[in-house]
């Protein structure tokens, strides 16, 4: 079976893409590298949830230790950018570049991202980052727009059925602020 490294930021976002990829004949290996998540407790909570779900659903999971400096370095000067702006572009590229590198290291020929499941993310931005990361690594980025065909709705249902922890902000400290301003 063809393996694909699926970057994911949390269990609710990973669950539906894992199912879809399996149905399409891939063997997904989930990759959790999210130095953007703030604070560390939140990072660890999302990681624990995805570890639990990977055991329940028997899929492979690879994860990295928390490395907030990776994110701080690329976000410097972009603190006041709105969500979906330049900070997000860099944040997504950071995570997909690392995913591509990890796929090469693991000898996995394909990678993709569960980030496209979110209605708050621009799929085109994710595809461009994925293709850029693919170019420098020589492997293939699969352009799955997971929110299509009711993907987001199904993901919400799976999260509810499994009683998953669901955060109410994207991940970085700036997205906590944006969420507070909206509520
Ligand atoms: S809002 Fe989300 S995608 Fe944008 S920089 Fe923050 S964590 Fe990254």
Concise account of the structure shown:
This protein is of the alpha/beta class and 183 residues long. It has one domain: Rossmann fold.
Can you put this structure into words, describing what you see?
The chain has 183 residues and is of the alpha/beta class. The protein has one domain: HUPs (Rossmann fold, 3-Layer(aba) Sandwich). The chain has seven helices and five strands, in the order βαβαβααβαβαα. It has helices spanning 11-23, 40-57, 68-75, 86-105, 123-137, 151-161, 173-182; strands at 2-7, 26-32, 60-63, 110-113, 140-141. The protein has a five-stranded parallel β-sheet, sandwiched between helices. Helix 2 links the parallel strand 2 and strand 3 (60-63). Helix 1 (11-23) crosses helix 6 (151-161). The longest helix is centred in the middle third of the chain and has 20 residues, at 86-105. It is globular, with a radius of gyration of 15 Å. The termini are far apart. The model has no long low-confidence stretch (mean pLDDT 95). It binds iron/sulfur cluster (SF4). Iron/sulfur cluster (SF4) binds next to helix 4 and helix 7.
């Amino acid at each position: 079976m063809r393996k694909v490294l699926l970057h994911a930021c949390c269990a609710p976002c990973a669950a539906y893409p894992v199912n879809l990829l399996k149905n399409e004949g891939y063997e997904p290996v989930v990759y959790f590298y999210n130095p953007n998540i703030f604070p560390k407790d939140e990072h660890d909570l999302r990681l624990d949830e995805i570890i639990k779900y990977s055991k329940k659903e028997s899929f492979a999971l690879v994860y990295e230790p928390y490395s907030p400096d990776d994110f701080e370095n690329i976000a410097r000067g972009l603190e006041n950018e709105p969500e979906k702006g330049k900070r997000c572009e860099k944040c997504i590229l950071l995570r997909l570049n690392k995913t591509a590198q990890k796929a090469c290291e693991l000898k996995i020929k394909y990678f993709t991202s569960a980030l496209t499941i979110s209605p708050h993310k621009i799929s085109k931005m994710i595809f461009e980052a994925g293709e850029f990361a693919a170019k420098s690594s020589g492997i293939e980025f699969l352009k799955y727009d997971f929110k299509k065909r009711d993907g987001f709705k199904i993901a919400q249902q799976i999260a509810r059925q499994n009683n998953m922890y669901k955060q109410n902000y994207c991940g970085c400290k700036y997205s906590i602020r944006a969420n507070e301003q909206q509520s």
